[in-house]
């Protein structure tokens, strides 16, 4: 593990209701993607990035913000956090490392590919109190907006469509399977 590096919080507590509604028969994170579960692809990228990881499998509330707060509380001693949903199996280790490195210069780092914002979103240690107070569905949008308004958020341009390629439906899973072939 890299010293003084942020912890990657992998969000894996969602119910995956859109995936099941689209015809999926299991939790999307456990769906097979070329011989291993979707979540395992994400965890492999984090491992290759050389960063510590904390997977949030359950949270007190139902929303993404609840999961973020739970993960940050569980890793309270970290120097910062990268929030990465568990359904982005194509994210690269290099993208994860790039966001982590950019936290040395900015309080919040939002990766961008082709004009669209993706994940993982990075938060420096100074965001701790705001992150553990989050709840609901909106994720950490309020924290990002506050730091952006203060000129302390960086939009980091990356050459990785994997920061955007999530799996919400069975059709998404099939599209990603085709991309990997």
TrEMBL record:
Keywords: Magnesium, Nucleotidyltransferase, Transferase. It is an enzyme of class 2 (transferase). Signal peptide: none annotated. SUPFAM superfamilies: Nucleotide-diphospho-sugar transferases. One of its GO terms (molecular function) is molybdenum cofactor cytidylyltransferase activity. CDD domains: GT_2_like_f (cd04182). Its EC number is 2.7.7.76. The keyword Ribonucleoprotein does not apply. Residues 52-147 form the MobA-like NTP transferase domain. Coiled coil: none annotated. InterPro entries: MobA-like_NTP_Trfase (IPR025877), Nucleotide-diphossugar_trans (IPR029044). Pfam families: NTP_transf_3. This is Molybdenum cofactor cytidylyltransferase.
């Amino acid at each position: 593990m890299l010293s003084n590096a942020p912890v990657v919080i992998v969000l894996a507590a969602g119910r995956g209701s859109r995936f099941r509604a689209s015809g999926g028969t299991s939790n999307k994170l456990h769906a097979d993607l070329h011989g291993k579960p979707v979540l395992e692809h994400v965890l492999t990228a984090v491992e290759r990035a050389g960063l510590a990881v904390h997977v949030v499998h359950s949270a007190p509330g139902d929303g993404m913000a609840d999961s973020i707060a739970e993960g940050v509380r569980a890793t309270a001693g970290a120097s910062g956090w990268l929030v990465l949903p568990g359904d982005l199996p194509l994210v690269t280790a290099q993208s994860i490392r790039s966001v982590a490195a950019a936290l040395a210069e900015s309080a919040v780092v939002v990766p961008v590919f082709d004009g669209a914002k993706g994940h993982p979103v990075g938060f420096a240690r100074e965001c701790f109190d705001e992150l553990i107070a989050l709840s609901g569905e909106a994720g950490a949008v309020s924290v990002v907006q506050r730091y952006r308004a203060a000129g302390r958020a960086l939009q980091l341009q990356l050459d990785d469509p994997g920061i955007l390629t999530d799996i919400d439906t069975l059709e998404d899973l099939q599209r990603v399977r085709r991309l990997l072939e």
